[in-house]
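Exercise 7b. Backbone tokens:
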């Protein structure tokens, strides 16, 4: 999702979730190193696409001293040109775990109208429409939005805050944010904006990469650094988000840890680490394949139900912000795309 129209006026070192203004630095890379890492994936971006992130820029990963949330300087968030140049046929996956999970949730909660924020080319909108839901989307990437519109969907191309004046928009039973919040400089403000469009007792669904899961095997993956991602999320961060936005957290779940994911992130780390002069993990490319197969055959994934790629949470919009949260914890058996 292109974040060019999101606000970036908060101080770079203020925690985007709790607002605390003290933090420590966990890791850092230069703009030049990030360019080298992207090149390992065959991605060469123009200087315009890099925006404020110059080759000699120092990109620091901060950790909030109060809540532990990890984030980057929002000034490095990717703009429209970055996402236009980054996009490839697999970028907007049509088979994400959270799509299936959200549709199951929507049926259980008797949802009718759905707004998908960051809808991309409309993959989830297609699935939801096929299931009988009334759907529309919001997407800043113009090319992706036009593809979704060509599939017959209504897609808006402006921030939620700007849509309040559209009297014909109405309210929704469910608003979804699939792999979106990690791109946004101001996730709390955007979630608060979303509550203005949710019916009373309606729901907001969020899916984000799990910083405490398998992706931790590859800390140098450029997809998890600016300009692409500027925040990193854990289960406790999604729980804190409910408090910050006066929402009730009703369900939280995560992808199971699957053997192929272990193999992919382990091998990718061993590919990227030497580029930075860092020692790779043991086993080269062979050991991850062997351990991945052993893991699959031993059914260990039952033991690690929430260590996969993504975590997702469902919030309810309630009139009383002091309502006691009732949280259901479960795991998904569908592998993330």
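Sequence design result:
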């Amino acid at each position: 999702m292109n974040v060019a129209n999101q606000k970036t006026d908060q101080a770079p070192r203020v925690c985007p979730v709790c607002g605390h203004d003290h933090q420590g630095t966990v890791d850092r890379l230069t703009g030049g190193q990030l360019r080298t890492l992207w090149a390992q994936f065959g991605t060469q971006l123009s200087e315009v696409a890099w925006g404020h992130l110059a080759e000699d820029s120092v990109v620091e990963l901060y950790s909030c001293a109060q809540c532990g949330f990890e984030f980057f300087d929002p000034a490095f968030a990717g703009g429209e040109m970055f996402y236009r140049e980054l996009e490839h046929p697999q970028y907007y996956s049509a088979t994400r775990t959270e799509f299936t999970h959200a549709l199951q949730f929507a049926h259980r909660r008797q949802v009718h109208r759905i707004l998908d924020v960051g809808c991309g080319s409309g993959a989830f909108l297609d699935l939801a429409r096929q299931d009988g839901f009334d759907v529309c989307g919001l997407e800043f990437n113009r090319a992706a939005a036009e593809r979704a519109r060509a599939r017959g969907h209504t897609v808006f191309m402006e921030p939620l805050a700007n849509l309040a004046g559209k009297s014909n928009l109405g309210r929704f039973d469910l608003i979804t944010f699939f792999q979106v919040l990690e791109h946004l400089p101001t996730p709390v403000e955007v979630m608060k904006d979303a509550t203005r469009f949710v019916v009373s007792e309606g729901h907001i669904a969020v899916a984000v990469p799990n910083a405490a899961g398998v992706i931790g095997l590859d800390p140098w993956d450029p997809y998890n650094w600016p300009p692409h991602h500027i925040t990193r999320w854990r289960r406790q961060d999604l729980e804190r988000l409910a408090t910050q936005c006066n929402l009730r957290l009703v369900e939280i779940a995560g992808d199971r840890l699957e053997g192929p994911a272990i193999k992919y992130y382990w091998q990718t780390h061993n590919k990227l680490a030497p580029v930075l002069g860092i020692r790779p993990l043991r086993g080269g490319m062979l050991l991850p394949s062997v351990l991945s197969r052993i893991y699959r055959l031993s059914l260990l994934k039952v033991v690690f139900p929430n260590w996969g790629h993504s975590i997702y949470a469902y919030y309810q919009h309630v009139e009383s912000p002091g309502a006691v949260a009732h949280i259901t914890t479960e795991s998904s058996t569908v592998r993330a795309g």
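Instructor comment: The domain at 97-259+300-332 is CATH 3.40.50.150 (Rossmann fold). The mean pLDDT is 87.
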